[in-house]
Write a structure and sequence with these properties.
With about 80 residues, the chain is of the alpha+beta class. Helix content is about 30%, strand content about 15%. The chain has two domains: about 20-50, no CATH class; about 50-80, no CATH class. Strands 1-2 form a two-stranded parallel sheet.
Length: about 80
Amino acid sequence: MPAKAEGQHALSETALAGCWRGPRHRQRPGGVGAGQAFILEGLASGALSPVIAKTFALDDVQDAHRFLEANQQVGKVVVTV
């Protein structure tokens, strides 16, 4: 992650993807937005941290895909650009 400027958390250039907006979010106050805020705040404060199974360079994206197909990872697979 890029270095943090004062008053800026490391997630300022990070996207949160994979939020499913199914029928349950309409039943909860705040819906997905509240959950997304909870996750982003937890990541920013360090209370939550992603588990990274393995990191691949962009040139090794085929190896990353094979690693995912093997279904052996616990955590996220990161491809760096």
